[in-house]
Amino acid sequence: MINKDLCVMRPPVVRKIAGLGVVTNVIFVFFWLLFLFTSCRTDRYTLFAEQGETFVHELELHASHRSLDFSNPQKLEFDYSSVFKTPPNSSLEIQYSFSVPPSSDIKIKFKIELETENESWTIPMDFSFLGVPSANNAVYHFAVPLIDNFNGQFKIKLSAAETSGGSLPESSLPVFLIHSMRYINQWFGFIRVEEKYFSTPYISKQNNGSFLISAPIMTIGRNNRNYQLTAEPLSAGKTAIVEAGGLTFEATAEADKIFIPSLFISHNSRVVLTGDRITSFRLTPSAVPEFPVPIRADTGHILWMPLANWRNKDWDIYRWDRFPSILIVDTMNYGVQDKLFKRLAFFTEKAGFRGRLPHDEEIADIRGWYANDYRAVDLARFFDAAHKADFPLLDEERMLKTILLNEGVILQNGNDIVQGTGGIISISRESNLSSRIVYMAHEGFHGIYYTDEDFREFTRSRWEQLNPQAKRFFLAFMDFKEYDKADEYLVIKEFKGYILHNQMSQIGGYFGYYLPGLLVGTEFQNGLPPNEKGSSFWRSLSTVFLAEAEALSAYVYRRWGYETGRTWMLTVR
Questions:
Q1: What are the pLDDT digits (tens) for 324-336?
Q2: Do 506 and 396 share a domain, yes or no?
Q3: Whole-number pLDDT of residue 45
């Protein structure tokens, strides 16, 4: 959208000062007319150009204000107060290069500063302060934070240091070349893309090799912001660690980046990153969404998140960062979880109940699940049935329906509720940590299963080649757990889930001892294969299911870097 008022405001004031010399009026008028012409053409003037998560507003540059010669230090003055009012959380970015890379002597004897009414910033002449060697064709971007009432006036000043010592040969003096200037969304950190370098104030490399972003918000006068963090790429096979908000986030060796949502990083956080060959470390203002809007997070964030970071006392909700169509709920206890999901469990999975809506009193004394997972099609069937029957859902179930509609997991189509994409999973804080880890792996792999057809087909192929004795055992186990084993989709999904939710070292005992032991002495023990007399260990089951675990684990590792017992890319402590 074009703001027509911009075309009647006064021109930007630009002055080039060398011993306070001034650009001639003729040149000034020429460039102002050029500015006016280009700025007011609706087909060329764009206030906001969306580029991913950032907005961009380009500032008009006059030819006379595109360079500073080190042989004749000068000051450039800019006044864009009449052109554009910067929104909150903005930075001023200058893109620049040098005719030749500044030498060590140049960097000692000169400095380039960007001055606003409130602050003065030293513009870096290279990335050596981050341990990056100079390059002949380097292009730099330096973004300084702006206060929210920034007046649009600033200076770029090249000056000689007071203790500069002897003079340098004029032939060795570079020219500072300004390519562009623009307003962008505020951020802190550094990015390197080939020979392009992006940086901000407050970022430094420490003696131990780590990178530090100090608390910048205190400097620019805001104390109510939260920040999200991204660091990438991470070196293959090595971990990376971020310290922020009093917590330590450690990426797995398989992670290719670290993302930390704004729940964890407040305005006074000190952020330290340790890792090899990282080319991007970014801290950006990000408001914490109001509950119950899902927050983007890794499953590791959810598992180890301090309760103090929750937005709601009974439960919180997230969006899986690697699988955005999957929502994840963490509840304070099983009671809260049951209010959200228990009826769904009976409607979608429980033998004798599937396809109908049980009333509360009917299922009050029957166990639900300690963790849950539901795909979009089953969620749509449940809420469509409840809507058409005018069934008395709980307040929590109605809130869940609203969330699923808002997030596109289910859709309203006239009087019908139909499937959207993805699904939802849940765990509870009432489970101990070791159980939460198992449940997150179990439900997490279900979530991926909902979103990925190749994963479903691979799992089906493993089930179909499974030997008859192992299949009979698993179906007996499904009966024991009160799953509806007549639902082949459910059976194959759970076959994969129970195999993948433990660590590989536990698989043999889990399928050779623990699960068979649950069936012994029950009506389902006929599903057990023959065993050595007097032994409580079923070696045949252990061997078969260990082979399945190895096949499935190799698959999920190749696809996503996960493995048996793990669906997260970082831990929090």
A1: 999 999 999 999 9
A2: no
A3: 25
